[in-house]
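Students often ask why inverse folding is considered easier than folding. One informal answer: many sequences map to the same fold, so there is more than one right answer. In these notes we will look at a single instance of the problem. The structure comes first.
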């Protein structure tokens, strides 16, 4: 409530609230301090509210500093969206390292190519952590059951995502060798994509607070919807990339298109950068690039 500077031991005008030998005076002193504390908190709340109202009356708009202050538990959104930015960036690096690994020398792969599975581990752990925090935030703000379900689907997807790079770093032939489990990425991206569809449907049926359908995609209240549709576009590409390049039972040559094929590369690049763009839009919505204070 912005009242952290209030000291309940000291009343305004420097009047100390010391205990007295007489119980009645001590009781009156405590009551006075309590009233002053409530008054200070009320005054502080009204000052904070009036500041936000004044900023909104000035026009608001980009970079949405005033509007973002009205987001409940805003710092949780700042944290999880930065985690998603890291996850998206690591995923793009993972795709780049994978292409380098498959196109480069087999016996002596480049250093960047050798980091392929480690980029995957970083990306997948970040998705898992981010969606866990998002699930917590959704419960705190009282989100709809459908909104929570979409998040849970993506949380499950993150678990499947982690299986491939983790088993790949193990290098166990029983688990697919350096490539890891052949089915986990495809399974994960299907859960992720279905979760995005559920989330977009939820936004359509239950408009989030602050959203206005008559205003554009760039309106602050509509940014979460915009970002979610960007996420869904990203997973359409990633579903395509995984479906085309998935090798049945891990056998070479059983995929529809080689992983180095142009359709797969296009889908990987488009999907990775759209996830990054969606995360950036969410971060703009919560003013996560400028305001790191509660």
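Output (designed amino acids):
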């Amino acid at each position: 409530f912005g009242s952290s500077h209030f000291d309940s031991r000291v009343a305004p005008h420097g009047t100390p609230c010391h205990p007295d030998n007489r119980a009645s005076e001590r009781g009156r002193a405590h009551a006075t301090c309590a009233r002053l504390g409530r008054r200070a908190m009320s005054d502080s709340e009204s000052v904070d509210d009036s500041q936000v109202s004044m900023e909104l009356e000035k026009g608001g708009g980009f970079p949405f500093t005033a509007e973002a202050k009205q987001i409940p538990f805003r710092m949780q959104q700042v944290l999880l969206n930065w985690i998603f930015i890291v996850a998206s960036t690591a995923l793009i690096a993972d795709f780049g390292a994978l292409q380098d690994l498959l196109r480069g020398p087999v016996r002596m792969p480049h250093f960047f190519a050798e980091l392929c599975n480690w980029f995957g581990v970083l990306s997948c752990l970040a998705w898992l952590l981010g969606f866990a925090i998002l699930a917590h935030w959704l419960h705190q703000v009282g989100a709809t059951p459908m909104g929570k379900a979409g998040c849970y689907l993506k949380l499950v997807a993150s678990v499947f995502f982690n299986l491939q790079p983790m088993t790949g770093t193990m290098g166990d032939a029983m688990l697919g060798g350096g490539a890891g489990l052949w089915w986990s990425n495809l399974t994960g991206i299907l859960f992720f994509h279905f979760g995005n569809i559920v989330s977009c449907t939820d936004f359509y049926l239950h408009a989030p607070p602050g959203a206005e359908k008559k205003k554009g995609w760039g309106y602050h209240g509509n940014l979460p919807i915009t970002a979610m549709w960007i996420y869904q576009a990203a997973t359409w590409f990633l579903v395509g990339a995984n479906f085309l390049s998935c090798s049945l039972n891990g056998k070479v040559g059983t995929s529809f298109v080689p992983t180095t094929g142009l359709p797969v590369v296009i889908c990987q690049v488009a999907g990775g950068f759209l996830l990054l763009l969606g995360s950036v839009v969410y971060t703009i919505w919560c003013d996560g690039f400028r305001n790191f204070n509660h």
